[in-house]
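Exercise 3.2. Students should predict the tertiary structure of the chain below and write it as structure tokens, then compare their answer with the key that follows.

Predict this chain's 3D structure.
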Amino acid sequence: QVQLVESGGRSVQAGGALRLSCVASASTYRFYCMAWFRQAPGKEREGVANIDTVGATNYANSVKGRFTISRDNAKNTLYLQMNNLKPEDTAMYYCAATFGCRGGWPNYNNWGQGTQVTVSS
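Answer key:
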């Protein structure tokens, strides 16, 4: 098990940028595959971006070219750089982790509490 704590969410105007962070408690963080998910009110949770243990990434079509996921294993931290934000990006953003993976979208079994992002037009 790994504990995840997100931060960085806030209200921003459309076209703005934010960087979300997620700090993981595990000393074996570098062996975890990580992801960002989001859930807007009344909608299902969706995967935004993920990154595996060697840095390979996947993105939802809706954020490609605008969002960048990255990780700093020395700091046990996952990041999501969000540029050119749109009102439809408004959601609670969650960090997720799973130990080891083989690409694609694995089943994540560790979740943070979330950080709220609100984008106004």
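Discussion points: The mean pLDDT is 96. Residues 50 and 117 are 18 Å apart (CA to CA).
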